[in-house]
Backbone:
């Protein structure tokens, strides 16, 4: 089953899908396809396909589509069960999850990967937070969640309509957001140890990339049973501007000094005295306070 988001990449994915589907079939992939038409629809489709016992459920879209499909493998916070594998056809704006695994964008190469069907168990992050209205939210994530400026960048990208390419879109949104951003006081409890800080953002990473290609967690391993927590502290506007290049190269942990540091954790709690929104795999489910933890080897992923 391919779950395809026609709105991904500003609608370009939907326009290119007929040709891509024809090339996949010509390359020997036998599949059904379901098109999404609203937020959350991909999760509903994927959950039904997992319960049917489909061998592979494929997310065709961007990081948000992958997140929704991955959430279909869970009911609340518990795995639905079965032996279904998650597949990925990258077609969206950011493409950060695919960078960690090298998923091909060429239909013929993607077809070869899906037909081979080699599955790798990966960890899944879980976040529990609240909406702006105070309603509880529980969400799985396969790539990266963050609290702080990252969510504001995603919100700006959403408003922009994502007309530019992925990296350019996120870079422009990062610069525009950074000029007006004010760092936030936060309280973090990492595996029982409490930290008070003023931060630009706190990143909770299962994989390595976010923000359209920034190597924010260069040491992250998606199968080690832990989450990489990157604290980006009280940077000035000038320091933040300089750090963008370091984030893209993955050198910020070498040069960050006392203001950027990394820890490994199984559970993280974050809170703040004012509103701080969350970005979860490029989606905006809610705000602090939030609790993050890891589900080791909770998902099988088709990989090259």
Residues:
């Amino acid at each position: 089953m391919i779950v395809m988001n026609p709105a991904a990449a500003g609608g370009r994915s939907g326009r290119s899908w007929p040709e891509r589907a024809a090339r996949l079939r010509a390359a020997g992939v036998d599949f059904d396809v379901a098109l999404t038409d609203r937020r959350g629809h991909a999760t509903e489709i994927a959950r039904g396909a997992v319960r049917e016992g489909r061998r592979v459920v494929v997310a065709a879209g961007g990081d948000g589509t992958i997140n929704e499909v991955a959430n279909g493998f869970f009911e609340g916070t518990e795995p639905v069960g079965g032996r279904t594998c998650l597949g990925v056809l990258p077609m969206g704006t950011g493409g950060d999850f695919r960078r960690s695994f090298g998923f091909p964008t060429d239909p013929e190469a993607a077809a070869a990967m899906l037909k081979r069907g080699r599955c790798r168990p990966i960890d899944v992050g879980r976040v529990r937070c609240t909406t702006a209205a105070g309603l509880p939210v529980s969400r799985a994530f396969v790539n990266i969640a963050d609290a702080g400026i990252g969510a504001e960048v995603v919100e700006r990208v959403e408003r922009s309509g994502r007309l530019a390419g992925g990296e350019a879109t996120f870079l422009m949104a990062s610069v525009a957001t950074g000029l007006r951003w004010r760092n936030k006081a936060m309280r973090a409890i990492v595996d029982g140890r409490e930290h008070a800080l003023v931060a630009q953002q706190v990143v909770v990473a299962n994989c390595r990339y976010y923000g359209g290609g920034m190597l924010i967690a260069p040491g992250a391993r998606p199968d080690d049973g832990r989450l990489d927590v990157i604290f980006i502290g009280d940077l000035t506007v000038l320091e933040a501007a300089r750090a963008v290049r370091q984030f893209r190269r993955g050198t910020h942990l070498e040069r960050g000094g006392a203001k950027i540091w990394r820890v490994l954790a199984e559970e993280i709690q974050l809170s703040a005295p004012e509103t701080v929104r969350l970005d979860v795999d490029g989606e905006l489910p809610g705000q602090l306070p939030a609790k993050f933890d890891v589900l080791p080897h909770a998902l099988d992923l088709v990989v090259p």
